[in-house]
Design brief:
The chain has a five-stranded mixed beta sheet, with helices on both faces. A three-stranded mixed beta sheet has the order 5-9-11, with no helix packed on it. The protein has 13 helices and eleven strands. The protein is α/β, with parallel strands linked by helices and about 375 residues long. It has two domains: about 170 residues, D-Maltodextrin-Binding Protein, domain 2 (3-Layer(aba) Sandwich); about 130 residues, D-Maltodextrin-Binding Protein, domain 2 (3-Layer(aba) Sandwich), CATH 3.40.190.
Length: about 375
């Protein structure tokens, strides 16, 4: 009796193993996802190889590769490797590139509302709040409306990395009043170009890698780019010694990563999600990287004899007044006004809470560090 039961159990076990696909060899069938073909996409940044922003593009690609288990690899190329920086979006749209890393202000020439998704007016918010609006306040739907419906651009995009406030920039002499900005040849991008024109500057729009050579040749009197690490790597301190800190021209900016829409739509759902969520992971990780590197390079610039000067309040107030004029002029275009009104509603609501709730860091910093 016992032997019969034991035999029955053995037969049942063999039958189960055969049905499960294990068989005599004892091999386990691997999930279909692991046998999928590996994809390699050309992914060009809008940054020179030596810029920390290009490092951040590489870091984003690394996260995509690791999160996908190597199934989706982004081959990162520097600005100009396939197309110039300002042509990157067109190349992704056409499928010449599979994706790219930059900022929306670079597409400002196609529609000025593009700049609202990367360099919006200084409404009393920072880049953290800006990204909050994008992902939780209706901004992403408006971005998709502009990109896919209005301009018919064949791309999918994600914003990430809340950038610290950008400096007024590099000057040949200290800026002491708004009058010092009048008639200077100044580099900036996006809506900031309209802002500085209102302040009386002669504005030139250039990609990052072209700024310092233009200053060296005297084609520019002053320029802004983004942060101490980019500025020191691009060589700003070699052509200027006055670094004006604090500004309202780009108080809330973020990166944009874009991909060819057809290529994204052909991906399985998990890889689509990885492209999106790798941006969220990079937001947290690269912010820490920025704080570390920016502060170290800020100290290095001091050692190189750069004069660090806080932008006077009179200049900051003049910028806000100039924003009033820029907003009024550009809001005559319906979609621009639609996006801006959404942003204002977000800042008015969230800012009321944050201004009252969040304690200023200044008092605590002075208490411990002087």
């Amino acid at each position: 009796m016992t032997k019969a039961k034991s035999s029955d159990r053995g037969a049942s076990r063999r039958k189960f193993l055969q049905v499960a696909g294990l068989g005599a060899a004892g091999t386990v069938a691997m999930p279909q996802v692991s046998r999928a073909q590996t994809l390699t996409w050309k992914f060009q940044s809008t940054w020179p190889t030596k810029d920390i922003f290009h490092e951040m593009a590489v870091d984003y690609a690394k996260k995509v590769g690791e999160m996908s288990g190597g199934r989706l690899k982004l081959e990162v190329l520097a600005a100009g490797a396939v197309v110039p920086a300002f042509q990157m979006q067109d190349a992704v749209h056409a499928g010449i590139l599979d994706g790219g890393h930059g900022v929306t202000a670079y597409w400002y020439g196609k529609h000025k509302a593009f700049s609202l998704f990367g360099t919006p007016p200084a409404l009393g918010w920072d880049a953290h709040s800006f990204l909050g609006w994008f992902y939780h306040g209706g901004g992403e739907a408006l971005y998709n409306e502009l990109v896919n419906d209005i301009l018919k651009v064949n791309v999918v995009g994600y914003l990430y990395f809340p950038m610290p406030t950008q400096p007024l920039g590099w000057f040949k002499r200290e800026v002491k009043s708004p009058d010092d900005l009048k008639n200077i040849k100044y580099r900036t991008v996006g809506l900031s170009a309209d802002l500085f024109k209102e302040l009386g500057a002669a504005v030139t729009i250039l990609p990052g890698g072209e700024i310092v050579p233009a200053m060296d040749r005297g084609l520019l009197d002053a320029a802004e780019f983004n942060n101490p690490s980019s500025d020191i790597l691009l060589g700003f301190s070699d052509v200027s010694k006055y670094y004006m800190l604090q500004s309202y021209h780009q108080a809330a900016e973020a990166f944009e990563v874009i991909f060819n829409k057809g290529k994204v739509n052909a991906l399985p759902a998990e890889l689509k999600s990885i492209l999106r969520y790798a941006a969220f992971a990079a937001t947290a990780d690269q912010l820490g990287m920025a704080y570390d590197r920016y502060s170290k390079d800020f100290e290095e610039l001091k050692k190189r004899g750069v004069n660090m000067v806080k932008t006077p309040d009179s200049v900051l107030q003049a910028q806000l007044s100039a924003w009033d004029k820029v907003i009024e002029a550009q809001s005559k275009e319906a979609f621009f006004a639609k996006v801006l009104n959404s942003q204002k509603a977000w800042v008015k609501r969230t800012g009321a809470y944050l201004e009252l709730n969040n304690v200023s860091n200044t008092m605590a910093y002075k208490h411990f560090f002087g």
